[in-house]
């Protein structure tokens, strides 16, 4: 039977309950929510309540006067138990009261000692001691981290310290925490061996867009509502940016916009677009995996040949000449003028059709919907959204560049109803000192770790074990290297701190690695850690982030962090202060001086030290006053009690993201070249199934909180792999059977879910799951700038078990709505 | 032929207060017999025991519109034709659910083709053969299922619910 909470009534929010602004801490859309808290022994009533509604009556659809059991919990606030309701904000322009299946469980996914939710949250620092992890004080844990770290770093020589650190907003990220970590590793130190939470290097996911002069978040969500065509490439917003789709794209479709979706598989976004726009207004381009550059270049060629371009915009706002930036080791394609790109990218309809598997008619149809002027001669508005399908797909640099070529050629950047933007994963919230010292291409960190490099590893909310490529090998090596240090620590039990540090340093010099894990839960890579430091999340601290239209909001702290958990920025400050102390003790005063400047008592102090310095108009008080609608970055002023933002980038036609003084956008001169990353073509040739992979609606990213949420785990006890039913029959696989997905890199497991719309031999698997890491079978191939290609993976599939009792109980019906 | 436009009509009626008869292909509408009473001192509420229908009234795979625990809470009573966990009656195949989508409260329509309830608002789907499990969608709970009892005359009574019904903070209104 399906999981039921058996909750048939909820405490009513009383009038006068405390109200807090909350931007959802999950996806980049950052839906507005309100958190209400009130004392445990009080409640409202049906006739006296927070909203003044008569709650003795049934409320209608979309009512503000209802909340689900998942939106309720009992949490600690200033040490006391309080009721908590976190419900969607009907007045927020982002979501207009809509909640997603992820965000509307925020309250339930808070740690509660009363209701027992999220007991997996870390509460106290832990160190490896006597053969396991033992709780300890912050002073003790930070002292050990500092003493070991100080032994492997020195002024201008920090290459033995490896750092994996999130760069996102929301969750436990945000401007406060990226600044705290950024100041430590990029200002006090110049750490070069670092990576980001979801990829094996410290790099941009959209280098080409920025090199072409275009920031990847340049529109606002309302542009979807007033456009003529929505062009979605390698993205599935119905599941991954749900309320961007439902509250903005859907309105555009209802206003008459046509929809072009480029994706190898039929997603629920295609289905929902057909519902809203009518199937006749939706064109699904089910391209061969990885053929995006061919599609984009063919569209670009055809559109240019037809003259459906914005000649005035091209003349005024884009580079004139031939090549502006030649291809080199940092630029996987040359960048230059429109005409130069036409020559470089030229691709006929016949060649484009052959490469993509589409018909020429489909490509022409797409080109017409994207660019053909209307009957009265006026230009079509087209907004383009893209995400991991090309970011983590084939030939990242050229795939994004070739797509942006189309938007630039048609004058669809910086205009109402236009924009060419990534749709995003987390919210953003990046404010750090320059990372220029890291270099480009950036070091391939996970490969270096496999090769035995690095002695101390600081990990900030990264879980390589679930979200890296070549993960099977990575885990084998990392387990062995970290176990060497555990063994050394075990052997030093009972000895002094100095002797313990000596033992650890000996082990890392012999090939081991000392692993420090800062996280909100005990992650999978955290099983290898020697020190574990508990962090706070959004809402357990004040936290600022920016959403996918650059909307900056402050999420107000509404509860205490679990136990002694701290905001990451204050943990970073603690590491810096301990390093300074230890270095002084060791007489390394010059180096110690670099670790001054962390006298922060609160996350607001870190915000003021970082983001506020670069954006002096912005303070917590002003953001609080701006509420859940916040302000669109960049903030350009403050007047009449309000922050003044920027509705849309590049409305003046001046492009700046590349730093060129002429302000001209560049076109990408990247011809189609098939599989770019090493080993992909060979893996495809040797295995039957394409293992496409990505996110799913129900669970957030790597399931870190959802793995402790009954509602989610009841639905998908094991990560699913969608397979065509005829393929399943051939392999003797029934719905719910456990299958092994295996190839030359390793193996992983999944629950077989029949999907009639899946093409034969093309599957889709959930990425980043705790009990079935798809990364196990992704090969080590990356692009020239070390962007992983998780998507291009092939493997064989075999049954390893009948459905588990939990898997046997769930529904295997189609996801497509039947109305 | 899509019938979501029809469901849209149902939704507008619901917003005006005309709840019953809006969802699915109604064979009959049954109002609860007992007076609903809210009591807050128990682990779960006291629900009215409401006669919904007699087994002989039901046709396989044709939902009957009901209101439970009161007339303002629309639902369906359904004989699936194959036994399911939690099903009642001699064939173990009779179930009843709320048809208000727990996401935003739209009235859902029944798809006989795959025995699901489907929301016209944002396209969430629930499996009537799996205890109302959300197959795909935006709701943060599975569908409220009504507890059923069948007496020796074949009369079917609803006597409880296992999730909070959309639009009310107490399943039994005060």
UniProtKB/TrEMBL annotation, chain A:
Q: Which residues form the Molybdopterin oxidoreductase domain?
A: 121-576
Give its E.C. classification number.
1.20.9.1
Instruction: Give the highest taxon in the source lineage.
Output: Bacteria
Q: Does the keyword Iron apply?
A: yes
Write down the SUPFAM superfamilies for this protein, in alphabetical order.
Answer: ADC-like, Formate dehydrogenase/DMSO reductase, domains 1-3
GO MF annotations, alphabetized: arsenate reductase (azurin) activity
Q: Which organism is it from?
A: Rhodobacter calidifons
**Cross-referenced Pfam families:** Molybdopterin, Molydop_binding, Rieske_3
Q: Which UniProt keywords apply?
A: Iron, Iron-sulfur, Metal-binding, Oxidoreductase
Give the protein name, as stated in the record: Arsenate reductase (Azurin) large subunit
Record domain Molybdopterin dinucleotide-binding: where: 690-782
Q: Does the keyword Transmembrane helix apply?
A: no
- Taking every annotated instance into account, which residue ranges of this chain make up the domain Arsenite oxidase subunit AioA/Iodate reductase subunit IdrA 3Fe-4S cluster? 24-117
Automatic annotation (TrEMBL), chain B:
Q: What is its EC number?
A: 1.20.9.1
Its top-level enzyme class, in one word, is oxidoreductase
A single Pfam family it belongs to is Rieske
Q: Which Gene3D superfamilies match?
A: Rieske [2Fe-2S] iron-sulphur domain
Tell me which residues make up the Rieske domain.
63-157
**Any GO MF annotation of the entry:** arsenate reductase (azurin) activity
The protein's UniProt keywords, in alphabetical order, are: 2Fe-2S, Iron, Iron-sulfur, Metal-binding, Oxidoreductase
Q: Which PROSITE patterns match?
A: RIESKE (PS51296), TAT (PS51318)
Q: Which NCBIfam families does the record cross-reference, listed alphabetically?
A: arsenite_ox_S
- UniProt name for this protein: Arsenate reductase (Azurin) small subunit
Organism source for this protein? Rhodobacter calidifons
